[in-house]
C-alpha cells in the first residue's frame, strides 16, 4: 500500500500557537503509520517550514505548498490542520489550500471565517429549534460613553469578549458598571470587533461533532465545572482548575435534544471535520443556550474531543483516520 503524504500543519500567528503544538504532538503520535507518511509543517508569520526528524528546518515552497527533501520534490496528498486561531481556523490558510486543490481536514474558508466571528455565527444559528442565544451587542469601536450605552441595552452581569479571539484571551465577566470600561479596553486590545452579551446562569457543556463515512456523528457532551468565574485560559489549560465530566450529567431527554441541536448547527454552518460546540443548560428553564463553535478544537490528550472519543469506546488512531479519509470524499 502506497502511503499518503500528510502535512500536519501547526503553529499559527496567535498566542494559541503553544496549544497548537501540543495538539499536533498528540495527533502525530496517534496517526496510522501504515497508511500515512506524516510531515510536521510549522506556519508562523515570519516563516513556514517542515521540521525534519534531525531538527533541520526545510522551507515550504508557497507556489505549490511543497518541500524538497534530498533533492526530491514532495507534494502533499492532504493536510491535517491543527492551527487554532489565525491563519488555520479563520479561513485564510484553507482558502490557500483550496486555490491549490489540496484537501484538508477542517471546515472550508467561508465557514471558518464566519465561525471565527461570534456575533455572525449567532445570527446564522438563531432560528434552530430549541436553541437559544443570549442577548448581545456587537461592537466595532471603543469610545467614551460606550459603557453607559451598553448598560441601557443589557442587564448585568455581562460577558465582554473579543469577537474572534480563542482560548478566552481578553475576555471578562463584568458584574458592576465600574468594571465595564476596563473590560472593553482589554477586549479591544485583542480584536477590533467585540461582543458584549448577557450572562446566562447555568451549567456549561461542550460537545464534539464530526463527519466521517458520509454521516454526522455527535459525541457525548462534556460538563465543565470550573472553580474559576468562567472557563478562561487558565481553567482550560492548567490541570486541576476545572473539573470535566464526560459524558456530562444530563437526563436522557436532554441528551437526545442536544444531539439534534448539535447536528443542525453542524449542517447549518456547513461544517467539515471535527468541531466543538459549547453551550449552557440554563438553571431555571433547562433551555439550551449557544455559546460558540470551535472549528479547530484542541486535540491534546486531556482535551474535550479526546475525552469524548474515548467515552464512545473509540481510539484516537481510528478517529484521526476517519477524519483524514473523509477529506478525499
TrEMBL record:
It is found in: Cytoplasm. Pfam families: Dala_Dala_lig_C, Dala_Dala_lig_N. Its EC number is 6.3.2.4. Residues 118-325 form the ATP-grasp domain. Its main location: cytoplasm. Its cofactor is Mn(2+); Mg(2+). The keyword Manganese applies. It comes from Cyclobacterium amurskyense. SUPFAM superfamilies: Glutathione synthetase ATP-binding domain-like (SSF56059), PreATP-grasp domain (SSF52440). Pathway: Cell wall biogenesis; peptidoglycan biosynthesis. Mg(2+) 2 binds at residues 292, 294. Keywords: ATP-binding, Cell shape, Cell wall biogenesis/degradation, Cytoplasm, Ligase, Magnesium, Manganese, Metal-binding, Nucleotide-binding, Peptidoglycan synthesis. PANTHER family: D-ALANINE--D-ALANINE LIGASE, D-ALANINE--D-ALANINE LIGASE B. Binds 2 magnesium or manganese ions per subunit. Belongs to the D-alanine--D-alanine ligase family. This is D-alanine--D-alanine ligase.
